[in-house]
Design brief:
Layout: H1 3-11, E1 21-23, E2 46-48, E3 68-70, H2 82-86, E4 92-94, H3 103-106, E5 117-119, H4 131-138, E6 144-145, H5 162-185, H6 188-253
Parallel strand pairs: 1-2, 2-3, 3-4, 4-5, 5-6
Length: 254
């Protein structure tokens, strides 16, 4: 895939001014030049063009906010003086695996006053005597060279990638949000709500039992009332019978 098409796909319906990170690794550059990248990418902070066949960075647009530039595994052998003009706020530059043979090639980088980290792995320049000491003298603004400072202390996160650390912070914020959502899912309030629902169900069952008990009591009362009425009627019947018997006896006496 050529670089222009890759940039179009990377935009994903965004405008260039919305893009802060652009990864163009392993695509094809035309005649070793950066194509399709314009100064409309004014908010771009991270640009990666690893293994795209670049021979020059002369065609970089003006990217004032660019902080990290990945140029490893290309065929760049010089022309780095344009970086101070095109990317004046660059803090991290990776030139590993390029055709940089001597210190004079990287000397123009001293104009990048904000440059903190430079990588030159697998470049011929690293084979020079006292390579590290000479680079730190040539570029005094550097904190890390090939992932280590002047005292051979390793940079945080391998090469002190401030931009990457910023991304990590964003990821941590997202993780915190996810944790909060998880906590909300398992919040004690939900358990209390479930317990409340269980109590309501138990209360409903008790009410139903109470109602059924009251109905049974009413039925018992009705049954007793019916029995009492039957007993009274029977007594009245027996009394009438006795009265009739007594009247019959009086008639016999007469």
């Amino acid at each position: 895939m050529d670089m222009k098409k890759r940039i179009h796909l990377e935009l994903r319906n965004r405008t260039p001014s919305d893009v802060k990170e652009l990864v163009l690794d392993n695509c094809r550059s035309n005649e070793g030049k950066i194509e399709g990248l314009t100064d409309e990418f004014e908010e771009l902070e991270f640009l990666s063009t690893i293994n795209v066949g670049l021979t020059t960075v002369a065609h970089l647009p003006k990217l004032n906010k660019l902080k990290k530039l990945e140029l490893s595994d290309n065929r760049i052998s010089g022309g780095l003086e344009v970086l101070a003009e095109k990317c004046p706020n660059l803090t991290h530059l990776n030139l590993s695996g390029n055709k940089i043979k001597d210190l004079s090639t990287i000397e123009p980088l001293k104009e990048l006053g904000t440059l903190k980290s430079l990588d030159l792995f697998n470049c011929e320049v690293t084979n020079l005597n006292e390579y590290r000491d000479n680079v730190f003298k040539l570029l005094p603004q550097l904190t890390y060279l090939d992932g280590y400072d002047k005292d051979d202390k390793e940079a945080p996160d391998s090469d002190a990638e401030v931009y990457a650390e910023g991304l990590d912070d964003d990821e941590e914020d997202e993780d915190d949000v996810d944790d909060e959502e998880y906590d909300e899912d398992a919040a004690p309030g939900d358990e209390e709500e479930e317990e409340g629902e269980d109590e309501e169900e138990e209360n409903e069952e008790e009410e139903e039992e109470d109602l059924s008990g009251e109905e049974e009591e009413e039925d018992d009362l009705n049954d007793r009332e019916v029995d009492d009425e039957d007993d009274e009627e029977e007594e009245r019947g027996q009394k009438r019978k006795r009265d009739l018997d007594e009247e019959g006896e009086e008639d016999d006496d007469d």
